[in-house]
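ugh ok fine here u go
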Amino acid sequence: MGLEFLEGNEAVVRGALRAKCDFFAGYPITPSSTILQSMLELLPQAGGIGIQAEDEIASIGFCIGAAMAGRKVLTATSGPGISLYSENIGLAIMGETPMVIVNVQRQGPATGSATKGAEGDIQFTRWVTSGGLPVIVLSPATVGESYELAYRAFNLAEQYRVPVFLLTNKEIGMTRESVDLDAIALPPLVERKRPDGTQDYLPHDFETASDVPAFSDFGGDRIARYTTSTHDKGAYLTASPAVIQEMIDHYTAKVDEAADDIALVREDCQDEAEILVLSYGVTSRSADVAVRQARAKGVKVSALVLQTLYPVPAKAIARAMAGVRKVIVPEMNMGQYRLEVERLAPAGVEVVGVNKMDTTLVSPGEILEQGGLS
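structure:
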């Protein structure tokens, strides 16, 4: 189609449709509402189903049911809505339910500033549900990346049978840019692993902990059970500590052991650089400018932009930190992902946060000044 003038939320919708999404349920909440609006308009034209539910709890419940009946599902909300999603997100993890959840972040806490941007849901998204099990979280920085990562989120959801978060924010979701979606390279579409015709079907069957079970639709020719309680491979309730631990190890291993395959980063490293600027989301755009300005002054500085936030791309971060003495982490929050960087930093490496949460973007000048690059 050539160049189009799209906002990030519209690009998310287009990426979902490109991934063959055929079910959406959501509830209006700024700044994610145009995803709902676009899906209600475009999804039926593509043969799918779009629903405006009565609230957020119903929205994600509809999505879980549709996913287990064989649909490829999307839902979208913002901070307060994710709070309401949290119990059912745990259900989706327990039931190994493939789905994509978009969180268009806004200023919090609570109602906060509904029309202002922030990136304050980083840790909340990682720990959104009880149990502490790993999740997959992607973070775009541009309208084009919103399209690409929405598509990739569906692939990851199908490949690993998990809910996948697309963590964008108001500034990306509601800002328009010129973009040629056809020029964006996408990987092949991933389909669900199905049971073959000879095996006895167990909804959560695996041999090694990291195996992803085959998926049989509800309403098909096999009995498919589903429960939010601790269960065995057949989805029968169990109180056996050994079986419960085996299942927990499985939910954990299938994500954590795939961390290298899930990791998406953009690296721009300089030889002999002693400073690394590590960023993600919309703030990475300011970080790119700050790095260029620092290099223009003769400062040797490397840059690492994370598109995968969780599981933490630890190898890419460690590689980028090799040989540096300082890591600068700019964020539109009070230092949430900096905690992950500090955990990985070698002894003697200083980790400096450039943080603000006043609803305005972190500027390149603030990164240079507070990071000691000016």
